[in-house]
Amino acid sequence: MDYRHRKRIGVIGGSRAGKDALRAAEEVGRLVARRGGVVVCGGLGGVMEAASRGAKEAGGLTVGILPGNRPDEANPFIDLPLATGMGYTRNSLVAMNADVLIAVDGEYGTLSEIAFGLVYGRRVVGIGTWDIPGVESAASAEDAVERAFRER
Amino acid sequence: MDYRHRKRIGVIGGSRAGKDALRAAEEVGRLVARRGGVVVCGGLGGVMEAASRGAKEAGGLTVGILPGNRPDEANPFIDLPLATGMGYTRNSLVAMNADVLIAVDGEYGTLSEIAFGLVYGRRVVGIGTWDIPGVESAASAEDAVERAFRER
Amino acid sequence: MDYRHRKRIGVIGGSRAGKDALRAAEEVGRLVARRGGVVVCGGLGGVMEAASRGAKEAGGLTVGILPGNRPDEANPFIDLPLATGMGYTRNSLVAMNADVLIAVDGEYGTLSEIAFGLVYGRRVVGIGTWDIPGVESAASAEDAVERAFRER
Amino acid sequence: MDYRHRKRIGVIGGSRAGKDALRAAEEVGRLVARRGGVVVCGGLGGVMEAASRGAKEAGGLTVGILPGNRPDEANPFIDLPLATGMGYTRNSLVAMNADVLIAVDGEYGTLSEIAFGLVYGRRVVGIGTWDIPGVESAASAEDAVERAFRER
Q: Nearest to residue A93, comparing CAs of A80, A73, A112, A71?
């Protein structure tokens, strides 16, 4: 149970997403878990839920940093829900609590998390997401996770 | 002193900026104040300070939502410093407390504020800033302020 | 409009309160405004509204640091509403943004603000409120405001 | 690894504390872990560290909700550090993320957490701490943990 020294990968993306994005997110979650990483996310549906489901299927740990003030708003694959009661302002905390971010698809909320990741000096890897200088583009879930675990 | 029904214009941009950006920000501040608007910003230097200086010269009111926990970290042109002690996480509050945002230049911190502005359904006008769908590009300070006060 | 160098007095207390508490809060607001102070509060009803009304009647400035994300939840006597979207967590910001706190009556929310005031090294003056070591008990609104403006 | 349905016990108290308080906190942590509970705390030293150490010795899980923005400021017995970058304002999140709070000794910071616990409708059990109506006084660590796990 020493999660402290495991790599924390923030998986960010919208609460609604298309099939391809959801599949990629689930695969990201699975691969992160297989490598012993912890999935950190916003705890809700869509990309967050897909990544969490993938991680749980592979026996990983999932942390959800929630906008609301009740842990039970977390999707069913979150092991550790953290309520903030801060709404979208919590996006900053998602970025702060990840060693690396993997962005999958996503709208403006995801863009705010990408921006915070870069503000905080985190590596940000993207799969079909915002094209922002500083975001490394990955060709697939495998590629993204490979990059995320690579030492810089 | 009824600031409540005045339009609040968030002026966002980096704490370091080039000459042109600073001149544009100062002009934005001045024009906002002349139209009776309140300048809301992050309260520090660079674009924030230039916009605040412009607003004060035109007799306007300036509100600075600060990252630190001490009001005196505000630039000298802030009338009402609001300390948050939340670091960059306060960027969300800058966007939340503006009716419209005008972004001038800016780096990743500004990008996070643009993103929050769009998340919160605010109109975002840009002068030489991030090219994000949803951000209206303005040709000048005059154009930006004109757009900001225009009804949607 | 140089509010920056005016003393900021946080007036804290419940959104519901009895007649005596409301009368005291209104008188506190009035006296703070007469001395040129700015009333900072949580922006809602009860003690917060009474203090704001008193301050406005005496021509003062009132700042409301709100729990929700919409400025229009502020009571009608708030000049400058600041939305936080952070719920009760904003209580910390109320204490942080006051030079001195005057607590009138109040329940657990007020207790949290008193505690933060003391954490932040603020002087806390109380009128019929929680009996906590470090809180100076005042006999009346006049006494409380007199103490709040007294140099320590 | 299903921490989601385990009871989360917030252990609150100062970062400095006397021998008796530290011993009680450690015993609280140990007993919470033995019953399958998760220890949630502010993640720093003193009472927080003692409770975390006790929990780890008994094989439990510890979550630290930190004031700073770096996970490595957590004490060595925290499994899951959560950085907030919000300073004392994070005290609200400690209370929000516990089903029950056990306060051991403590100063004003602890008082703010007790207050938030009561605001959020949490049961608060105290060992030699602030005497606030609504806080159940416990005679010992055993008594406190027994109360914390008791259904209300």
A: A112
pLDDT tens-place string over residues B105-120: 999 999 999 999 999 9
In chain D, the percentage of residues whose pLDDT exceeds 70 is: 98
The owner of tokens 């609280």 is D28
Residue of C9, C41, C82, C122 to mutate when probing chain B, most B C-beta within 10 A: C82
Other CB atoms within 10 A of residue B70 CB: 11
Check: complex ipTM more than 0.95: yes
pTM equals 0.98
Q: Does D89 touch chain B (CB under 8 A)?
A: yes
Min distance D68 CA to chain B CA atoms (Å): 9
Q: How far apart are CA D103 and CA D51, in angstroms?
A: 11
Residues A120, B88: C-beta atoms closer than 8 Å: yes
Flag whether residue C85 sits within 8 Å of chain A, measured between CB atoms.
yes
CA–CA distances in Å: residue D24 to residues B28, B106, C6, D58, D144: 59, 51, 46, 15, 10
Cβ contact, residue pair C96, B84, below 8 Å: yes
Confidence label for A124 from pLDDT (cuts 50, 70 and 90): very high
**Per-residue tokens: A60:** 């990983």
* Residue C141, pLDDT above cutoff 90: yes
The answer to whether C130 and C114 have CB atoms below 8 angstroms apart is yes
Of C119, C57, C26, C111, the residue nearest B1 (C-alpha): C57
**Does residue C114 or residue A5 have the better pLDDT?**
C114
Q: Report pLDDT for C43.
A: 98
Cα Rg, chain B, nearest whole Å? 13
Give the per-residue pLDDT at D3.
87
Residues C93, B83: C-beta atoms closer than 8 Å: yes
By Cβ distance, the residue of D93, D119, D134 closest to C112 is D119
Confidence of residue B30 (pLDDT cuts 50, 70, 90): very high
Q: Is residue C1 very low, low, confident or very high in pLDDT (cuts 50, 70, 90)?
A: low
| Start-end of H helices in D11-107 | 19-34, 47-57, 91-96
The token duo for D38 is 């998760």
Length reported for chain D: 152
Residue with tokens 């302020």: B145
Residue of B nearest to D67 (CA): B86
Q: Which of A107, A142, A137, A105 is nearest to A123 (CA)?
A: A137
pLDDT band at D1 (very low <50, low <70, confident <90, very high): low
At residue B18's C-alpha, the angle toward residues B17 and B21, to 5°, is 80
Number of neighbouring beta carbons within 10 Å of residue A75 = 22
Check CB contact under 8 Å for B79 and C120: no
